[in-house]
Amino acid sequence: MVCKLRAVIAYLSYSGNTQEVAEMIASNLEEQGFLVDRHRMGIDPPIHANEYDFIFIGTFTWDRGATPEEVKDFVLEVGYKPNNVAVFGTGDTQFGGDELFCKAVDKLVHFYQSKWSGLKIEQSPRGAQEALIEHWLEGVIHHGKILA
């Protein structure tokens, strides 16, 4: 019997862009044999973080670089800082420039002291950005398996 790795993709999406990235990550993981749970922050019941080999947190950046309240609530629900958190997010340089672009991703990476740099996607993940997602995810999975 093969023991499959488990991942949860917890995300918050208002425009649909962050959800699109979450779905791309989920599909990629499932193709690789992972058991994947999807968690919509602010809607779904709390997760049990200790049940997962990987925790992916997806967010957008709100109001001049802030992390949305639902994401902060999710962090409180988890209640501790797991060492298997990878962070991704979507943003728009048009409204905040490069300085504030996906600032919530940076904040969460720092908070969790993530082993992985955050994935930052400009608006929709379609087109050339799909390769960014695949490359980032490959690094997370490879590095995570080495540490396991």
Automatic annotation (TrEMBL):
UniProt keyword list: Electron transport, Flavoprotein, FMN, Transport
Recorded coiled-coil stretches: none
Keyword set includes ATP-binding: no
Cofactor: FMN
Record bears the keyword Zinc: no
Pfam families: Flavodoxin_1
Name of the protein this chain belongs to: Flavodoxin
Protein source organism: Ornithinibacillus caprae
Species classification: Bacteria, Bacillati, Bacillota, Bacilli, Bacillales
